[in-house]
Specification:
With 130 residues, this protein is of the alpha/beta class. The protein has five helices and four strands; from the N terminus they run βαβαβαβαα.
């Protein structure tokens, strides 16, 4: 079973990362986007997030900024339950691509893939040996 993935963040960043991933991998039916716009109240964002989560038993959310409003809204959603939500911050394209290509049905393992890919996707080119 495919684990739903929500990209949560400020402005159009989540859509941009999602669109880039789909440009590379093609359409991704389990990928959803929740953007915080300047005129949004945190409660409005949280409500949209809840609608996107629907009745999923498990969910992976990739948020742009640790401690930001989207991140905090996901934490609040996770606390309300009943879905099991894994939340990883630092959303970037390498992270999303690896998550979408990974076939595990375990949301905790998928969160680990996201963390590793996000970390490994940042390279100081001047110090790399490639």
């Amino acid at each position: 079973m495919s684990i739903p993935i929500i990209l949560a963040g400020h402005g159009s960043l989540p859509s941009g990362v999602g669109e880039a991933a789909e440009m590379i991998l093609g359409p991704q039916s389990r990928l959803k986007v929740c953007e915080l716009n300047p005129s949004d109240r945190p409660e409005d964002f949280g409500a949209r997030l809840g609608e996107l989560a629907g009745d999923a038993a498990e969910l992976l959310v990739l948020a742009d900024l640790h401690g930001g409003s989207p991140f905090n809204a996901v934490r609040a959603l996770a606390a309300r339950g009943p879905a099991r939500i894994e939340l990883v911050s630092g959303l970037n394209l390498p992270m999303l691509l690896e998550v979408l290509l990974h076939t595990t049905g375990d949301v905790t393992a998928l969160a680990g893939v996201a963390r590793a890919a996000g970390r490994d996707g940042v390279v100081d080119v001047l110090e790399s040996t490639w």
